[in-house]
């Protein structure tokens, strides 16, 4: 998937911020399937900053690769604040990164509910030495590609904010 100029500029800015602080980055992605890591690694020379990315589409992968608790998944569901925080924390714990972003959401076209509609995405941000944080976005039913693209854009913004 080619990235628009805005995403490329954000990825370049994030890499420069991380480089200036001698920080490594990791991603933990569910609904985006690796697109955040893809946006970062589309930039030549990003290997000095990007440590790794986890594509944890299934609940089992979230547990095995990131240490997300079965209790959180059962109690809150994969698309939740608790799971987004645990994913971000797990990306730090299972990498050499200093900062991580995690995303879990409902990209559609199906799979939504009244409680968790298509377009709901939870973001987790974790920085070494700080408690993980999470926030949600309701992008609306703007189509699968639209939701995934906006999620990449917002994830890059969130990491830029965390490092600024």
From TrEMBL:
Gene3D superfamilies: CinA-like. Residues 11-162 form the CinA C-terminal domain. InterPro entries: CinA-like_C, CinA_C. This is CinA family protein. The lineage of its organism: Bacteria, Pseudomonadati, Pseudomonadota, Alphaproteobacteria, Kordiimonadales.
């Amino acid at each position: 998937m080619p990235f628009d100029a805005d995403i490329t500029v954000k990825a370049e800015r994030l890499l420069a911020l991380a480089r200036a602080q001698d920080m490594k980055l990791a991603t933990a992605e569910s609904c985006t399937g690796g697109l955040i890591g893809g946006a970062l690694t589309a930039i030549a020379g990003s290997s000095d900053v990007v440590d790794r990315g986890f594509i944890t589409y299934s609940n089992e992968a979230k547990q095995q690769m990131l240490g997300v608790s079965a209790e959180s998944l059962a109690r809150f569901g994969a698309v939740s604040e608790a799971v987004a925080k645990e994913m971000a924390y797990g990306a730090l714990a299972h990498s050499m990164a200093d900062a991580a972003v995690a995303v879990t959401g409902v990209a559609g076209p199906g799979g939504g509910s009244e409680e968790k509609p298509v377009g709901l995405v939870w973001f987790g941000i974790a920085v070494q030495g700080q408690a993980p944080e999470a926030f949600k976005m309701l992008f609306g039913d703007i189509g699968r590609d639209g939701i995934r693209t906006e999620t990449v854009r917002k994830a890059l913004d969130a990491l830029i904010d965390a490092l600024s």
